[in-house]
């Protein structure tokens, strides 16, 4: 595999070892048996590497992991049952009581809850900082063990200058992890920008079809081995073979889908700039920060007070109301729904979000149809 191979080509590569089959077989088994006592003992002693048990190893899952590792330019990958399982299993493999985490503001809401409800009670110290502080404050990572990043962040989509942040992290000896779900490896490959560990909610663009919940972590052999040794087997949030099959299938069209999401998002950003009721557009595009090469279809906008957001949401025909994103279908998620969510660890309340903000997930429908829908719904939504 050549280093210079472009990502669309890489993702379309056929597996070499599948008897001419274009797709990996779904190996739907819990365990693998051994031909002899000696083979069994050799495997347990680590002298061979044949699969033993699907909680830790499965060929269908391995096929997905191998394609993901190539896509992110990492040495290895480990797939897990969900994006949040990938985040929690990675964090728990690298922290201990007394560890200090610096986390970016407007991090994914359940990542924030994991920090506050699980890590903090176990004695991990967590502080939250703006993207600007990560880039400009040379001492921010002094004494910090681990920087948890998202670029762009959730909700307000603030991008980070990753080469700058990772240079500072290396100076202070802090391990860097990033949630790269928004950009996907098509638009951003953080390992090439100095980040140590890349995490995805594969439920989003990697699946692309709103039919799978999954996560994946890509990094060096050593870091992935640590997760495989500790939290994959001992927390047990493994990915099912059938879901791994769906994700490999999703990766085949990831590049083409991202190009379509980008074309629609560019059209929206251009036209939203001329809509008087839109006060702010949160949608980083190609080259807005070093290493970001495209605009995905997930953005947010802030309306002025003349728009009745519930009325606007109900008037939309192609945009459905719902959480998640990254599938074929367009969605709207008004911030006031998130702000209304019960519970003390509400990240939207913590970091502050305008009740006039709405998140748009632009799907694979025709861009002109989506724009016409947006315009007709807005015309019916005067407060
Ligand atoms: C959805 C999401 C997650 C969580 O992923 P699940 O697969 O739902 O567990 C993590 N990070 C971001 C940015 C997300 O949007």
UniProtKB/TrEMBL annotation:
Cofactor(s) listed: pyridoxal 5'-phosphate
Q: Lyase as a keyword? A: yes
Superkingdom of origin organism:
Bacteria
- The Enzyme Commission number assigned here is 4.4.1.11
Name the keywords, alphabetized: Lyase, Pyridoxal phosphate
Q: Which residues form a coiled coil?
A: none
InterPro entries per UniProt: Cys/Met-Metab_PyrdxlP-dep_enz, PyrdxlP-dep_Trfase, PyrdxlP-dep_Trfase_major, PyrdxlP-dep_Trfase_small
A matching Pfam family: Cys_Met_Meta_PP
Q: Name one GO molecular function term.
A: methionine gamma-lyase activity
Instruction: Give the family, as the similarity comment puts it.
Output: Belongs to the trans-sulfuration enzymes family.
Q: What is this protein called?
A: L-methionine gamma-lyase
Organism in which the protein naturally occurs: Roseobacter fucihabitans
Source lineage: Bacteria, Pseudomonadati, Pseudomonadota, Alphaproteobacteria, Rhodobacterales
Q: What would be the name of the gene that encodes this protein?
A: mdeA
